[in-house]
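S., here's the first fold you wanted:
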Amino acid sequence: MLMICSIRRQMLQNVSNFYSVDRNSAFFKAFFILSTRFHINFIVTIIIKILDIKGEVTNLDEETPPTIIITKTAKADYPIHELIAKRWSARAFSTRPVEKSKLLSILEAARWAPSSRNEQPWRYIIFTNDNPEKLKNAQSVLKDINNYAKRAPILICAITKKTYSDNGNYNRLHFHDLGAANENMFLESFNQGLIMHEMGGFHVQRAGEVFNIPEEFEVGIMIAIGYQDTHDILPESLRQKACIPRERKLLSEIAFLEELGNGIS
């Protein structure tokens, strides 16, 4: 960065000397601003290329700094569906409202998830910016680390029924099944051109009180859904996270042939 700034200063000095331009003139100031913006665009593009992150840089108008919508496609070792490869937990939410039809499609995807004995234990309590007061109340259960989600136009509390409906016995798979439904939501969110982020960082007891959760249910996770915004709206620490390439353990570290430790390949 220091090298870029030094080069820019030298360029401006050369322009000033060669054309005998007054540094306080409108021309000189315009040249300085344009050169600054050029180098910001240049630096951002180089960073994206280095990190091998697919992104797009757009100038909204002459007063708007470069905006970046980051997408991070998984580098899978074996072929997988495009939706799975493109799904990632983005945090830069736009305040733009989400069409109800898209929300209903996402919930429909959850509806068709598999579950133990077809119990379908998942339940979703949904808040949207159609009712800002209710949405703000729902946001109050989030911990500070998830303040970024307060920009999202949709916030959901995902809960799960702890027992089977037919016999009242404890369903030890209720959280597993909730996770399956949530993954369906994740994939459909990306299919609808949206992003989704699941959050365990919230006050569970408060959520139970705020959302009036019956004893037979257990609070699972909070979910934010919305359109993606540029990463520059995030605090510095989360901006850095957004630029880190996705990584996963090797397949041989999580899947084993016939016995634990015998990694499949």
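And the second, which I think is the more interesting of the pair:
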Amino acid sequence: MKRFLVLIWFSGVTCLLAACAAPLAGAAAMDAPTGGPLLKDYGPAPELNNTVWLNVDQPLHLADLRGKVVLLEMWTFDCVNCQHVLPALKGWYQKYAGKGLVIIGNHTPEFSYEASLDNLKAAVTRFEIPYAVAQDNDGATWKAYDNRYWPALYLIDKNGHIRYLTIGEGAYAETEAAIDTLLAEAGS
């Protein structure tokens, strides 16, 4: 009986702690006075030094994109999770490109055949990707962001600072809310 009472007490304390911690955990994502989520500043985003680009006339550099919000996606074309994120990315491109959002797919291959530029071009065509894609065969951008996962989405604010990161599929509503917040912020 004593063990049963201890178990009930422990379960009650656990539930109480969980109930108290839930509002605290959600506090960081609660609406700011401007109506969007509060987004931490993770510091300056590493510059993009990729030399091979698709869907753009010249290489993109974050320094040239000040005043814009940049969504940098770490992806590889044969990753099924990356493929599942594509509809959201294409939707955001369609909805926000004219409002100051620049989407860049940083393609870092996992397998040797993904390093082929012809294979990357075919994938960009097959998936109907309308936004800029940078080839990152040496992993320089991947490493500069200390990235470890496909897909990973980084949101960079108008001042060139990383403000949001999500890994894997999902968190689409949260990501779009962060896009809205960053587009509404004043830039330097």
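Why I say that: The longest strand covers residues 69-75. DSSP finds five helices and six strands in the chain.

Talk tomorrow,
H.
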